[in-house]
Major facilitator superfamily (MFS) profile domain-containing protein (Cinchona calisaya), 442 residues
Amino acid sequence: MMGWWKNKKEVRLLVHLLLPLCIHWIAEEMTKSVLVDITTNALCPGHSTCQEAIYLNGLQQTVVGIFKMVVLPVLGQLSDDHGRKPLLLITMSTTIVPFILLAISKTKSFVYAYYVLRTISFIISQGSIFCIAAAYVADVVDDNKRTAGFSWMMGLFSASHVLGNVLARFLPEGYIFEVSIALLVFCPVYMTLFLPETITPAPQGDQRLPYLKKACKIVEQRYHSMRHAANIIISSPTLKCISLISFFYELGMSGIDSILLYYLKAAFGFNKNQFSEILMVVGMGSIISQILVLPTINPLVGEKVILCAALLSSTVYALLYGLAWASWVPYLAASFGVVNILVKPSTYALISKSSSSNNQGKTQGFIAGLQAISSLLSPLAMTPLTNLFLSRNAPFNCKGFSLVCASLFLAISLLFAWMLKPNPSHKTSEVAAENIEAPLLS
């Protein structure tokens, strides 16, 4: 850990990234537990469960998944070509307007408008903030410190979850969105003033071309860049295996995340306070595991062992939620989040070490695009399955059966992780592509 403090420039560059990211995540997390009550009360007043809210949530995730398949790889490529800073500013600013709507009113029409704008926001920001931030970390941190860098980033993500849920737990409901909006506005302002750029933007040639030809050239460049990213993945056995791991992991976890709080509300009558408590259980343990434990054990066991342990924990996590027989079992299941949260930083590290410095955004974005396909497919099965087993027409008594099904996909992801053969020293061979720039800071 002392190696971090020997290079003050690395620390300063990371602080200017991680501070606004942390505040952004706090602002988003503090609204999560109260959104379930707001949407249920607006769409199904007087009911503890709301099929319309569950279906609307599943529809949102499906639409987001469709567009993210294209948007995420493109945003990753654009960050390689035009810089991390402008892409981070765009993606982090999209959350502000949807929350302004709910701060104004929580009626049915405003909730529908919120879902529309939040869907657009998710398409642009969900996943892309992580992959662009991961590319930034790879730009400014040496190879042997990247796992710790990703671990710190994810650890602060967990810390933000805890702080966000503490605010949600103790702030009056009427002030939650106002505070969240103020924090969300602060983040792009801070980045504009203090975040340095880490790559040289691509030269802007052909400025005098007609707009139609210029648009066609941009599309052609994006196509070639996407083919380049696909070739990088295909040419690396490690990246191919990580792609499969990420696909099945996201297939299971995105399905769980989309319905978990609604399931807990319907099955055990949980409310905002209990949601916050469960999320805090995960967050508090995750801070320790990511900021302290992962950087310490990674040099001893490597990313593969950590990834396998985290995926095993994820499988148990899903099974416990799905088979929960009492209201205390979800708290036990949540404790496994302390380990399964390590999937993300270990995956980012494996992707980064298997990619050249010129292609960090492309590879992170391409694999994030594969995860978007999973987040598209998952709610198509999870939403109707959850509603069926929460209804009186369930084939048998297992309200969390959809979560048990999700655990099977996590087990498949674990199987691929077990077969993974990481090669940290490998740098993917370069293939011909346009607009490839090396980072200024490496």
